[in-house]
Amino acid sequence: MIRKILVPVRGDGKGDNVLAHAASLARRFKAHISVTHCRARPEDLLPFGVPVPAFLKKQLFEQSKALADTVEEGLRDEVIALAKSFNIKMIENESKASGRTTSMSWSEEQGRQVDIIKRHGRLADIIAVAKPDLDRNLGTNTLKAALFNTGRPVMMCPKSRKEVGEIGSHIAVAWNGSTEAARAVALTMGLLESADQVTILTTGAEVHGASTADLVSYLEMRGVSAHTIRFKTSASLGKTLLRKAKSIGADVLVMGAYGDSHEREVVFGGNTQQVVDNATMPVILVH
Length: 287
What we know:
Elements: E1 4-9, H1 15-29, E2 32-39, H2 54-85, E3 89-90, E4 103-110, H3 113-121, E5 126-130, H4 140-150, E6 154-157, E7 170-174, H5 179-187, H6 189-194, E8 197-202, H7 212-221, E9 226-230, H8 237-247, E10 252-256, H9 270-278, E11 283-286
Parallel strand pairs: 1-2, 1-5, 2-4, 3-4, 5-6, 7-8, 7-10, 8-9, 10-11
Antiparallel strand pairs: 6-11
């Protein structure tokens, strides 16, 4: 059961799309959407390693505060307007959420977005973030922080050219018997139990892991009826998963996320990176 969805926002123009996805999921569970604005600290805007005279530093701090105030006010107004358009009730804070109706709250916190995600994401049922924009070099650190530092499921939301539809009615689950795949199933069980249809996508290559038949049996114990689609493995497994999920009419893909070293330029494992780069549907990732 999903009760709290965390949506970290900043002035990057992606908040409305992520909120639309979060709202779609929240309505299914009458959940609360906690929108947290990550406000940059003035000192983070100063050039690193460059001495700045005191008078200039003060001037820069004042200008950055004024800019941050303007951005914050604009974002807050946008969130309130979006809540109204989604017919979602705005409340003072998440402690006021009743669970009887979908609600949304706004809060601000100063600091780096990755640090705020670490702190607040660990006590969210799911975190909604934008799909990274490789052309603008935006969003990768946000997705990385949510995945690798919270232990929670992360819904990656691609930019949609049309109205966001229902999320959670037909769920596709990527399965290979691994620990990551098992964690993805375990941490999204509330979603799976509420779904109208669950489809398991697998190549059948569950080396030293639980088989697809084992997963079907386990889900049946939880009252979830799932059917299986097998496909041939390929070098473009991530792309194939996305194509299969779309072709069967799934509205979201659930999968385990594999990470390479944090010190490397490529943060995610090969198949996960393909999904992150090419997704045109919501994907719930679990590490």
